[in-house]
Design goal:
This protein is mostly helical. The protein is built from five helices and no strands.
Length: 111
């Protein structure tokens, strides 16, 4: 009987210790001091997180690559242009432009 009560107390203490440690950790993360440069970086990346590419960009990009694999270059070019038109991030725009140049070269080669 005493052993069971002792085990219950230990498990209760362990739970409260874990909860307390978690609260301290969350408090430290919530109120950590940031330098102005760090705050600017965080705000800058938050803006770009909101400007992620749309579903239309992803869908058209996927279709363009599928058409390219099927050697339907004109359709691929159209979908690359649609993806580029709805694209928001600069890195994706750069990649789409490269792939569009590649498709244009393939079309010119086929003619």
């Amino acid at each position: 009987m005493k052993t069971l009560d002792l085990q219950r107390r230990k498990s209760g203490i362990a739970r409260w210790t874990f909860r307390l440690a978690l609260c301290v950790l969350l408090y430290g993360l919530a109120f950590a001091q940031q330098t102005p440069a760090q705050a600017a970086i965080v705000n800058h990346s938050a803006v770009f997180d909101r400007l992620r590419d749309t579903r239309a960009t992803e869908r058209n990009w996927k279709l363009a690559r599928d058409y390219e694999r099927q050697m339907r270059y004109e359709l691929a070019r159209q979908h690359y242009l649609l993806a580029l038109a709805s694209c928001r991030s600069e890195s994706t725009q750069t990649q789409l432009r490269r792939e569009l140049e590649s498709i244009d070269l393939q079309i010119r080669t086929m003619r």
